[in-house]
Design a protein that fits this description.
By secondary structure, the chain is mostly beta strands. Helices cover 6% and strands 32% of the residues. The protein contains 3 helices and 15 strands. The N terminus is likely disordered.
Amino acid sequence: MKRTNTLLAGLMLFAFLSCSNETSVKAETNTMDNMTTGDTTTTASGLKVVFTKRGDGAQAVAGNVVKVHYVGKLQDGTEFDNSVKRGEPIEFPLGQGYVIKGWDEGIAMMRVGDKATLVIPPSIGYGDRDMGTIPPNSTLYFDVELVAVKEVKQPVPFDIEGKKVETTPSGLQYVMVEENEDGEQAYANMTAEVEYSLYLEDGTMVDSSIPRGTPFKFVLGAGQVIAGWDEGIRLMQVGEKMRLVVPAKLGYGDRGAGGVIPPGATLIFDVELLSVTR
């Protein structure tokens, strides 16, 4: 249930900087379509973007899943990572913190087919952390190519207006949103496959399997998930949708989780049971 942040190492060739036209603008107000090959823009964060080829594909926006080829270098030209040599571009959800801030900002300025060099200062790179091949406080240079952009489905909270709220002896609350009497019942020791979205009581979405396009699988009753899930999913049949309101004692208790779930938080899960297997 925890989101894992992926840190990205990267590079760029800096020959383009000496022969480019530089303008200081804010990233959010930048009109990148007017820029041509060799133009440089500097954003408010200190990121420099040098376009080396302009494409005409889809614009990358936060929430998209993007595929990017890249070569990463330090200021002295030392190469520390190269997806081109591996023959496999990196794929990640844009604007979700899965990569360093300089990447989230820079890739969002690009269209499919664009090639650019990103010059990323430490403040939006790895800062003063020692990343092994990347020394502390390094300016990073990345040659990047935006290979593909995929729009992803965004979660929508279930509508529970007028629906009955049930409470179990443990304190778990649940609302049946969509029934399926013909679906197979979930039992302990089955492997359950679910789509889910997790919200806090103030409506903040903390996590969701939907934008990732990968349902979550776990063994029921084996302690692989929080107690509220082990209990709540067993109330469902395949094809059903349910809202689970999980008190802290059946969730993450007083410890919270991942820096995004506060201690003592009540958790609200919108869950769809896709399948069960024995």
